[in-house]
Design goal:
By secondary structure, this protein is an alpha+beta fold. The protein is built from nine helices and ten strands.
């Protein structure tokens, strides 16, 4: 700074400047040392600079008092202000993301509900135009799938109805066969054919249901099914209840459990029914004490017209009982699985949503 000052002054003045204590500038101030009134502090000491020059050969010193002006406080450097800004920005970003993805969440929930039940409610079409178009397309897809399944059911029902007339006439004509042993075999084959037609129609109708949803006392339902089976001499017992209500279609749930119990009786000789609560669901198990299934058969147990291996039983059947049970479970929004029990036998597990 002295060098810059020398460049502007004459060489003879030899100016120098340096920063000194503030008292060098305040020594002659009569108000500086006086006591202050209550509530008034002493003024801030100024920046004091001492300028020394030579004027006409004599040294002259000049004290320069420059006011001390501190920089005003800035909110941008306050950590509390920065924390508040970052927190508000984070919360705002969460709200914006939630609003932006809400239609996608609705679409995902609707797709999951449609996967569980063919009669799922259509998703509400609101949001941006492109999102509304996607939701409308999804609703149209649901309706077309339901229409296709209804048409399939109508076709199978018509075929079943048309087959019953010639099969009935055939039954009457078989009664005229004189060979009694042959007549009994032919009538048995015809009865099996009628049973397969009926079960096939049941399978076609099991994928859709116009029944309303309601709350079902699961303990009462399981106890009633066990008592009904016991009345026909079957070894069926209800071993454990859960005291819960489930949200289901009562008739679909009843038919699903009835098929599971019939399957356990047919291939295992008995059935143990139990229910327990787990978070938001009720888990129902139907177990038999038969020989179980091989891993290969378990992988295809729910396929239509697939019979269990002969190690399970020699009982007759159409091979679609478990297929119908799974379709009825899906119609009521439940999940059905099948596995071998660690202590032997086969165990069917039905997971139903609690009310």
């Amino acid at each position: 700074m002295t060098r810059k000052l020398a460049m502007r002054a004459t060489p003879a003045s030899r100016p120098t400047i340096a920063r000194v204590s503030g008292m060098a500038c305040l020594g002659g101030d009569p108000f500086w040392t006086r006591p202050r009134a209550a509530g008034f502090d002493a003024p801030l000491a100024p920046d004091c600079w001492l300028l020394a020059v030579r004027v006409q050969g004599r040294p002259v010193a000049i004290a320069l008092a420059l006011p001390h002006l501190p920089a005003p406080p800035s909110w941008t450097t306050d950590w509390r202000f920065l924390l508040l800004v970052f927190t508000a920005a984070f919360i705002l970003s969460l709200i914006v993301a939630r609003v932006a993805t809400a239609p996608l969440w609705r679409l995902s929930a609707a797709a999951e509900a449609f996967a569980r039940s063919i009669d799922a409610e259509p998703v509400t079409e609101r949001g941006p135009s492109d999102v509304r178009a996607a939701l409308a397309t999804f609703n149209l897809m649901q309706e077309r799938v339901r229409a296709g399944l209804r048409e399939r059911t109508r076709i199978l029902a018509a075929i079943s109805h048309d087959l019953q007339t010639p099969l009935t006439r055939l039954r009457l004509r078989l009664e005229q066969v004189e060979d009694e042993a042959l007549r009994e075999r032919l009538v048995a084959d015809l009865s099996a054919t009628l049973s397969m037609v009926k079960r096939g129609l049941d399978l076609a109708r099991s994928g859709e249901s116009g029944e309303d949803w309601s709350s079902v006392d699961i303990d009462s339902l399981l106890s009633s099914l066990a008592d009904d089976a016991a009345e026909f001499g079957h070894a069926v017992c209800f071993t454990q209840g859960c005291g819960s209500l489930v949200r289901a279609r009562p008739d679909s749930l009843n038919r699903c459990l009835s098929n599971l119990i019939d399957n356990a009786i047919k291939y295992g000789g008995n059935a143990e029914i139990a229910a327990r609560r787990a978070r938001k669901v009720v888990i129902i198990t139907v177990r038999d004490h038969g020989l179980g299934m091989t891993e290969t058969m378990l992988a295809h147990a729910f396929d239509p017209f697939v019979r269990a291996d002969t190690s399970r039983s020699s009982a007759d059947g159409t091979g679609i009982g478990l297929t119908i049970a799974r379709a009825q479970a899906a119609a009521t929004g439940a999940i059905l699985s099948l596995d071998n029990h660690p202590d032997g036998g086969l165990e069917a597990t039905l997971t139903v949503t609690r009310s």
